[in-house]
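It is worth pausing here to work through a concrete case rather than discussing structure prediction in the abstract. The textbook approach is simple: state the sequence, then state the predicted structure, then interpret. We follow exactly that order.
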Amino acid sequence: MSASLAIPNTEASILSRVLERRVEDLTPAAAEFLLAIQFPTEDVNRMNTLSNLAQLGALSPDQQLELDSYVHVGNLLALMQSRARKLLRVSDPV
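Step two, the predicted structure:
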């Protein structure tokens, strides 16, 4: 049995690996664009609905998959935005 941790091949994790190789090429304009990305209001409302159902233990399997997808995309976006903020701090020290 292998002791290595398997990384799931969700769409978000695959995209994260693809994008990670290009982070060093990120321009300040691209970093600012990434920081401006937000979930649309409809998606935020849907995430809140799914989260409330999860807290009640009332998610269907399909709803759990949907919530997991939102979480994966949110984590990827947070990682990309963190790197964008770091790049902007480095390129414009105060």
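Step three, interpretation. Residues 4 and 53 are 33 Å apart (CA to CA). The chain is about 70% helix and 0% strand.
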